[in-house]
Amino acid sequence: MSSIIPTGGSGAGRTGPVEPRRAEATSSPAEAPKPKDVDGPKPPNHEVTSTFEGTQPAKPSGADLRPGPVGKSPSAQRPTRELPEDPLVGTFAASRTTRATPPTPVSLGGKKWDITGVSMREGEPHVHLQEAGVQPRYLPMVEVLKGRVVEYPGKNGPEQFRLMGTRTKKDATGKSQEYLVLHKLELTQEPVPLRTEQPPRGYPIRSRPLSAAPQLSVPQDHELLVPMSKADNITFTFNTGTHAPSGRHTYSLGAMRYDSFLLTPTQPARTMDVPLQSLGKVEARLHGRELEGVFTLEATEKGGLQATGMDQNGHTGTRAIQPSDVAGRYVLVPAPDFGGEVALDAFHFHEAVARATAVKKPTEGSHPISDPLIGTLPSTVRAQVDQGTASLQHIQKLLEDPAAHGPVTLFNVDLGIGGKGATEEGNQKAQAVLDALVAYRSRNPDAPMQVIADERMWNNREMNKELTTRLQDAGIDIVFPRTTAKPRINHSKGACVGDRVVLTTAAVVPKTTTKSDVTTELPPKAAGLYREYLNLTFKTGDFSAEDKSKLESIVADLAKHGVVANDPMTKRPYAARAMDGLITGATRSLRFTGSELKDLDTTHKFIEQAKAGVQVLIQYREIDPRSEALLKVAMRELPNLKLEKVDDWKPYPHFNALIADESQAYVGTAYLWPNQLSMAHHGLSHESGVVLGDDAVKDLLRQFDELEAQTRPA
Fold first, then answer.
1. CB–CB of 506/515 below 8 Å?
2. Would you call 214 exposed, middle or buried from its count of C-beta atoms within 10 A (0-12, 13-18, 19+)?
3. Is pLDDT of 77 > 70?
4. C-alpha–C-alpha distance, residues 107 and 247, integer Å
5. Is 65 exposed, middle or buried (0-12, 13-18, 19+ CB in 10 A)?
6. What percent of the chain has pLDDT over 90?
7. Among residues 311, 308, 331, 312, which one has the least CA distance to residue 321?
8. Interior/surface letters 286-317, b for 16+ CB within 10 angstroms, e for the rest
9. 22: confidence class by pLDDT, cuts 50, 70, 90
10. β-sheet bridge partners, residue 501
11. Which alpha helices (DSSP H) does 356-496 contain, by range?
């Protein structure tokens, strides 16, 4: 009998909380040797500290700051050079743990304050302070919010409840609606310090989302169901410092996506400007040098400003800086999933930017991507553009191959039959693949077979109940990938059958019938690597340091073969890096044909390339309002920049393709939006794609032109 398995274990996914991208470019990281994973002390399994500081009292200003600079004398202590955390970022003399440690907040007037900048006033530097911990943020339901004491308006004012989780119910029309489940509290509760707890591991998951509230027998007047549309009426109060009232901050709930909520302060953070001289020494990061760690700032006797710390190469010392060189503790970035902005730790933000930025090493006659970490598939490999469920034929052919034997993995290709919007053709194509899976099992009774799926999407589809039974009866496992910290979003799609692998952008039946997708069969060497990759990144049970090191090596090897993945287990965004290389490396033409452009940074890159004389064509189905406005303004002065909506293509493009100079292309699942362009957002999204070159690119362009001619109304 097969099973449904949540991947990961007590050691799984030690990637920590993640945060979104992008304010300004960092310098291109240099190619570096492959690192070994160096684990520092681990927190206890039951509890980890939040990314937002908040459980320890602040240190007095200037006290217990980091040690001063290392002297340059021969007898002075030398910094220990560790291998880089990953080759995408480069080599740093200081350890990542040291560099990632946030600046010590300023303690003033019984409160904690973050430094947001420095300016000159009356001939001396003044520090801009903002009340620490008061930022728009997102926090996961399971680890942080579930079980918290909250307030919700009642007849006589705010009443206290305990947040038990979520529950899905059908309304009178039969439409499912999600509610927050609150249980009434009889006694006043103290706010709980802002901590995060890891969920229990190892239990089977079938149809219960992680955030689901337990079905307890509770008196009707003690349970309250609040529709998600009214979640902003629910407030949390956290202690972000000591238990004094000044350390409490109240937030209202916002949108929920992928088990995380947007939290917005009900009151804006207090701010103040203070002469730096009055604070003595303080800690901050520097613009453009966020990855080097924290620097100690102090005012000079002549009213200047100086910083002390260690640079990337291990050189330490004190030098004069300008007020504009001082960076804030956090970066505010757009969060499309939540319809707002969130504050992200500056180090993690800029580290994610560096990882997703291609190295530029242009050489005469080279492809647009000059990053030595990104390769190109052989020109004999072809990507196939299909309309509707025709894309499923590639998986069916692999399964029906008489010579096929060995393990089977179908990932994020949902074969639910008979759902809303289903067509007879769609049902028949899905049934054919399902029949081929069962027939393969009969020919290979001992072969491991699994379907990797997104837990919430799978369980929210009524049609999948019957599909689950059929797969289990055939001895095919269903795996829901997640880490100890939060669910992982499996947006990559394809199938591994024995030694053969196809990557596709086609996903859910019946929706596939309205889309056009692209499928590529990988050559043998890349196919073998990709099977190893899937087995390890979606491994069940513990995920060790050795597993992480091996996975890093496999993902890097795949990228050099032209198969690029965004892998959240290692935070390696090779798909994003390849797309950046194509956009910024094009010298003649640049074409985007795909589903979504919702990333301002990418929009600016398109505009800059058009300003440089590159012919830029953006064919999109969806775009965010700010990007659209920027592009329309730019097009008034740049006739070589063209914007074209393709939502009238029937079926419409469900792939994302970038073609540079008609000589190199990326096509895959990653959209041009923040969650899928870096490892910085709340959603840990698996993406996959291929890098094509030369004749394969010309063939892809021909198919795109034919698709447009066939599917667009006259």
1. yes
2. exposed
3. no
4. 12
5. middle
6. 48
7. 308
8. bbebbbbbbbbbbbeeeebbebbbbbbeeebe
9. very low
10. 496
11. 392-400, 424-443, 455-459, 464-473
Higher pLDDT, 463 or 578: 578
Rounded Cα distance, 708 and 714, in Å? 10
What percent of the chain is helix, strand and coil (3-state, nearest 5)?
25, 30, 45
pLDDT number for residue 591: 97
Residue 304's identity, in one-letter code, is G
Q: Is the peptide bond before 487 cis (omega within 30 degrees of 0)?
A: no
Rg of the chain over Cα atoms, rounded to whole angstroms, equals 27
The Cα–Cα gap between 552 and 529 comes to 12
Per-residue confidence at 458, pLDDT binned at 50, 70, 90? confident
Is the backbone of residue 703 left (phi > 0), alpha (psi -120 to 50) or beta? Answer: alpha
Tokens in use for 363? 């050489």
Distance CA 52, CA 342 (A): 12
3-state SS string over 597-611? ECCHHHHHHHHHHHH
* Nearest one of 89, 8, 85, 99 to 39, comparing CA atoms: 85
Of the candidates 212, 203, 249, 279, the residue with the CA atom closest to the CA atom of residue 9: 203
Residue 437 one-letter amino acid:
L
The β-bridge partners of 239 are: 193, 248
Question: Rounded distance, CA 577 to CA 677, Å?
Answer: 8
Residue 478, token pair as written in the block: 């269903």
Report d(CA 203, CA 292) in Å as an integer: 41
Mapping DSSP onto H, E and C, the string for 471-501 reads: HHHCCCEEEECECCCCEEEECCCEEEECCEE
User: In degrees, to the nearest 5, what angle opens at C-alpha 670 toward C-alphas 666 and 674?
Assistant: 125
> Does pLDDT of 447 surpass 70?
yes
Cβ-based neighbours of 501, under 8 Å, separated by 6 or more = 494, 495, 521, 522, 526, 527, 530, 531
Residue 521 and residue 500 in contact, taking contact as beta carbons nearer than 8 Å = yes
Residue carrying the six token digits 């021909």: 702
Mean pLDDT of the chain: 81
| Sequence-ordered list of residues with C-beta below 8 angstroms from that of 8, at least 6 positions apart, any chain | 201, 481, 482, 483, 484, 539, 540, 541, 543
Distances (CA, A) of 692 to 309, 330, 374: 44, 38, 11
The pLDDT tens digits of the residues spanning 565-605 come to 999 888 899 999 999 999 999 999 999 999 889 999 999 99
* Residue 665, pLDDT above cutoff 70: yes
Q: How far is CA 673 from CA 33, 67, 377, in A?
A: 30, 41, 25
Q: Average pLDDT, stretch 86-91? A: 85
Q: Is 411 exposed, middle or buried (0-12, 13-18, 19+ CB in 10 A)?
A: buried
Which residues are registered as beta bridge partners of 24? none
E-assigned strands of 68-222?
A: 106-108, 111-121, 124-131, 137-140, 149-154, 157-170, 176-184
CA angle in degrees (0–180, nearest 5) for 126-107-273: 25
From its phi and psi, is residue 74 left (phi > 0), alpha (psi between -120 and 50) or beta? alpha
Phi, psi of 212 (to 5 degrees): -65, 140
pTM of the model: 0.83
Angular region, 159: left φ>0, alpha ψ -120 to 50, beta rest: beta
Give the pair of three-digit tokens for residue 570: 């290692």
Instruction: Calculate ∠ Cα 606-608-611, nearest 5°.
Output: 110
Instruction: Report the alpha-carbon distance of residue 246 to residue 111 in Å, rounded.
Output: 7
Q: In the chain, what is the straight-line distance between the N-terminal and C-terminal CA atoms, in Å? A: 54
**Which residue type does 204 have?**
P
